[in-house]
Amino acid sequence: MHKEENFQTVTLIAGDGIGPEVTAAACEVVLASGAQVIFEPVLAGMAAMEQTGTPLPKNVFQSIKKHHLVLKGPTQTPFGGDYRVRVEMENAQGQTEVRSHPSVAIALRKELSLYVNVRPIRNYPNVPSRYENIDLLIFRENSEDLYTGQERMIDANTAEAIKIITASATQRVTRFALDYMRRLNRQRLTVGHKANVMKMTDGLFLKTAMEVAKPYVDIQMEQRVVDALCMELVMKPESFDALLLPNLYGDIISDLAAGLVGGLGVAPGANIGADCAMFEAVHGSAPDIAGKDVANPMAAILSAVMMLRYIHQPQAADRIERALSRVLADKKDITRDLGGSVGTRQMTAAIIRALN
User: Fold this and answer.
1) Statement to judge: residues 226 and 181 lie in one domain
2) Is 253 left (phi over 0), alpha (psi -120 to 50) or beta?
3) What are the pLDDT digits (tens) for 203-238?
4) Interval 64-78: pLDDT, tens
5) Cα(356)–Cα(353) distance, rounded to whole angstroms?
6) Domain check: are 4 and 122 in the same one?
7) 233-260 confidence digits (pLDDT tens)
8) Burial of 4 by CB count in 10 Å (0-12 exposed, 13-18 middle, 19+ buried)?
9) Is 71 left (phi over 0), alpha (psi -120 to 50) or beta?
């Protein structure tokens, strides 16, 4: 019998739409792998909004601050308008402050200081793709740029947004990326920017990243203007090793890169801070197929694999990846978007069988 004190508790946010289905699949696979984790579910997203009046009740943050680890499903965010996620947080003086954010995901990243988004992009067996031999790692600065949400209507026909880049945030994310690459023996980092036009903001990002990298003599640094980078990614994506990008470009390019290997359904993600990390499938909540047992659980499962590596349980992570590769190679028990005909539950069961 396992001793529970040796287990890591994970805050589980099932999310909206297909979120509960794909996170349930990920949890089943993780537990079947022998990983030493316990999941603590909390209600967040649209269901929490209906029940409590906020998509992020206080108990969500209480659980995360206790365990410092989150597995999250996709959450729904309306387009346009003045929608804001309002959360009550305690400041350093113990006083309650109400803060607002554009979405649940951004609220969690900001309030938990998850300053870097990590997105591995690689080919998997029999996943339809136009490209082969892609093994790319994308680091996205998560805390600033246009995503601070500082925008306003000047008049009925004019809106503006403020783009913020700081040396300190760029130094932090660059060091994280370079240290992460060293652990994986990766050797070339490409900085994406638009410093030819946004000379102060993107210029600062590029200059700071290059300065931080100087002591990392084992890693080759290069830079690309972001539009040229997009062109090269769709022409020869296999030529890149790792990318470092400000927040907005990182958001766009990480989704573009997912399309190079089969789409968002096969793309895991991690948001990491100094003492907390959140792992989440990066696809949307897909409310049109929610509850129909057709969603591909692969991205959620791979996000859980990233989580297991983060908490130093590589054996369980390796077992899951091998099992998933076997199921993909066999082609029999895969969802329709992957070229198969089974549902979420059947694909999950096949992965669990392949663990043995």
Assistant:
1) yes
2) alpha
3) 999 999 999 999 999 999 999 999 999 999 999 999
4) 999 999 999 998 865
5) 6
6) yes
7) 999 999 999 999 999 999 999 999 999 9
8) exposed
9) beta
Query: What's the start-to-end Cα distance of the chain, in Å?
Result: 19
Examine the fold and report which residue of 260, 280, 315 is the final residue of a domain before the chain moves on: 260
Q: Which residue has the tokens 């539009």?
A: 227
Interatomic CA distance for residues 143 and 162, integer angstroms: 14
What would the two tokens of residue 51 be? 């029940």
In the structure encoding, which two tokens stand for residue 44, read together?
A: 């967040």
What residues make up the domain containing 298?
A: 1-128+263-356
Beta pairing partners, 70: 11, 278
Task: Quote the CA–CA distance of 333 and 336 in Å, as a whole number.
Answer: 10
Residue 116 CA to residue 243 CA, distance in Å, equals 12
Q: How far apart are CA 202 and CA 196, in angstroms?
A: 8
